[in-house]
Amino acid sequence: MKKLNLLFLFLTCMLACQLYQGQAYPVATCSSNVDNMTYSVMRSNTIANEKQRMAFIIPASQLSDIANGTITSTYFKRATASGSLNADTTFKIYLKNTSATDFGSTAPDWATEIGSATLVYDSNPQTAVGSTSGFKQFQHATNFVYTAGSNLAVYTEYVQTTAQASSIFWQYEYSGPCINSSNSNTTKYLGTTGTFGATLTSSNYRRPVIGFDATVPPPTTPPSCTTISAPANAATGVSLTPTITWAATPITSSYVINMGTTPGGTNILNGVDVGNVTSYAIPAATPLTYSTQYYVTVIPKNVVGMATGCTENTFTTLSMPCPSVSSPSASATGVSTIPTIVWGAVTGATGYKLTVGTTSGGTDLLNNVDLGNVTSYAFSAPLNISTTYYYTVTAYNASTNSTGCTVRSFTTTSVPPPANDNCAGAVTLTVNPDLACGVTTSANTLGASLSMAATPCNGNPDDDVWFKFVATNTAHTVTLSNIVSTGSTTASDMYFQVLSGACGSQTSLLCSDPNTNIVGVLTPGETYYVRVYTYSGAGYNTSFNICIGTPPPPPVNDACSGAIPLMVGGAFATNAITTTNVGAVTDGTTSCQTNRGDNVWYSVVVPASGSITIETQGVTGSGLLDTILSVHSGTCGSLTSIACDDDNGVGNYSLVTLTGQTPGTTLYVSVWRYTGSAGGTSTTGQFMVSAYDASLLATNEVNNSKNAIKAYPNPFSDVLNISDVADVKNILVTDISGRLVKTISNPASALHLGDLKQGMYLVTLEMKDGSKQTIKTIKK
C-alpha cells in the first residue's frame, strides 16, 4: 500500500496535482468560480449559539484516483486570515459510500443519513483551524475506506456556543465541471440559532472546496485506454501546432504518445512520456508539415505497465495558405506604372512565386517566377498606361505549395510616371546660399508610385518623387511651398524624408512635414536625397515647389565663451550696440520664461557704484520683436542665474536693474527670443543692447561743465598726450572688457603706453576735486 496525501480540490487542482510518494494523481480541473461565506462548513460568525449541518455528494468520476483507498484526513479551505475559533466549538465529519447522486427534493432526515455513515472526526477544531488562511487538515479518529465506483457522501456538523470575535470565511465552489449546477439537490444544509431541526431544509448546487489524505493500494493491472478528443479522428485542415487532448483514466500515472506519418509510425513522437496530464501541444518551434496525414496514439501508463490495444487516431494538416496581398488593393485603378506588389508572410513558407499577365491567369509578363523569401516585388520597368494587369502570388516550401490562390487585378494610371519616380531618377536641386529660396524647383506627384516603405517617416504614404542635392554646408533647410492638390477639393498633406547614402542602401536623416526644417550633420561635398510623398490615398496628386536653403553661420557670441563685452555708460544710448541673434542655437537656461530660444551672450563689468541696468530695445525692420534677458554670475560652464526679465522694458523688450553687486565683477548676460505665440510671432533678427549706470551720467555732466580735456593722437601708437594734466591726480587705463590694465599717479602730459596691445581702451582721469572724465582711445 502507498500513503497518498491527496487533496481533491474541486476548483483548481492546486494540491491534488502535487507529487505524493513518487506518484501524482490528477483530478478534474474546475472553473475559478469560487466565493467566500461564513457558513459553508462552519457557521463561525459573530452570533452566539450558532449551528450548521451540511451534506453533499461527490461523484465517483472525481474519485477514481483513490479507488479502494483508506481516507485518513479531510481538508476544507479557509478563505481569510482574520479571527480564531472559540474554545467551546465542536465539529463533526461523517463519510459514507453511496450509489445516490443527490439527496432528492424531499428534505433528508439527518439522523437517518448519518446513521449509515462513519463518524471520522469529532473534536474541538480550534487548533486545526488556526488563524491563517489556506487548507485546514482535520485528522480522522476513525479511518474510512472509499469503495471504488461509489459516490461519496460527506456530512459536517458545527456548533459554537459563544459568538466569535470576528467571522471566519470558508471557500465554496458554485460552477464548473466539478459541480452540477442544474441539480441543487447535490448539497443540503441547515443553519440555525438554538436547536437543530430534524431535517436539512435548504438545498443548492454549491459545495465546499474539499480535499483528502488517503492510503491507496497500488494498482494490480495496467490502466485502460483513453479516448482522444482533439484533433477529432479523421479531422482535416488541422493546425501545424495542434494540441492533442484526451480523457483522464483511473490508476494512471502518466501518458505516452506515439505519432508518425504512417499507421503506427513514430517518426514524429516515439514513446514520449508527457507525464500525468491530459493534453500535449506540438511546439511552435517544430511545427508539423502542411497537407500531411498524421497518426497518433495516447497510451495510459502506471507502475504495472502500459495500456494495450489503444486506438490510433489520424488527422490531416491544412494546406499551405495563399499569401494575403495588401497592395495594390483588389481591382485598384489609377495605379502607378511602376507598382510594388506587397503581401504578408506565410508560416512555414520558404519562398514565393509570382505570375503576371494581361489576361486573367495570363503569364505573358511573369510566369510563376520564383522571387525567393521576400514579401514584396517592385517592377523594374514601367508597365503600359491605362492597362489592366492580372497577378497571383503563391507560397511554397520544400514539400508543398499553396494552390487555388486568387487572381487579383489592377489598372494602371493614364498618366506616365515622372522621371523622378524613384531614387535613381532623382532631380538635382540648386542649393541656395541663404534662406531666401531665390531658386526653387517645381514638381508634381502625378503618375508617381510608392517606391519605398515609409518607415521611419510620418504618415501613410501614397506616391513619392525624388530629388538630390550636394551639401555646401554642415546644415541645410528643406522647404516645401505652393502645395496644390488635384483630383480632390481638399489639399493633400505632404511629407518629406532626407536620406544619405546611395540609392537602395540609404539611411534616413530627417522625416518632416511641409514646414521649413533644418537638416544638420551634413558633410559638405556629399550627395543627399530628398523623398517627397503625399498622404492622401489613390487618385490624389499634388504639385509643389521645393527649395534647399543654407542657414547663416552662428554669431560669434552664440556661446558664453564668445560673449561680447558691453561698456557701461550713463544711459541706454551712451554705449548701446546693435547686434543680432540670427543663426544662434539655444543653450543655457532662464528662470522667468520657458518659451525661449536662439540666445546670444554678452559680458559686463560691474562699475564702482555696484549698480547696473541692462536693457534690450528693438531695431526698425527686424523680425525680433520680443526678448527675454537673463543675467548670470560665475564663469562660463559654471553660471548661476541672478536675474531674469521678460517684458519689463519698452514694449515686449527686457530690462534688468541690479544693485549691491561687487565692483569689478564680470557678469554674463544672455538675450533670448520669445518663442511663444502670445503677442505675435517673433523671429530672429537685429536688436540693441546696452549696460548703463545713471551715476556715471551725473559724473560726466559735472566733468563736461568744468572742462573738456583732450587726448591725442587718437588712435595712437606708443604715446598718448593729455592736453591738460594740471588738475589730474590719477589716470586709470582699462580694456574694453572693463579690466584695469594700468594706473598712473601724478601723470605727465605724455603717457607712454607702448606696452599695451592693439585695441580699444578707456582712459579715466581722476581729478583732484574728486570728479572723473573718461576718454575712449584706440591703440594701433
Automatic annotation (TrEMBL):
Chain segments annotated as coiled-coil in the UniProt record: none
Sequence ranges assigned to domain Fibronectin type-III in this UniProt record: 324-418
Domain of life assignment: Bacteria
Classification via PROSITE patterns: FN3
The UniProt record lists the keyword Signal: yes
Segment forming the signal sequence: 1-24
Record's keyword annotation contains Signal: yes
Keyword terms, alphabetized: Signal
Protein name: Fibronectin type-III domain-containing protein
Biological classification of the source: Bacteria, Pseudomonadati, Bacteroidota, Flavobacteriia, Flavobacteriales
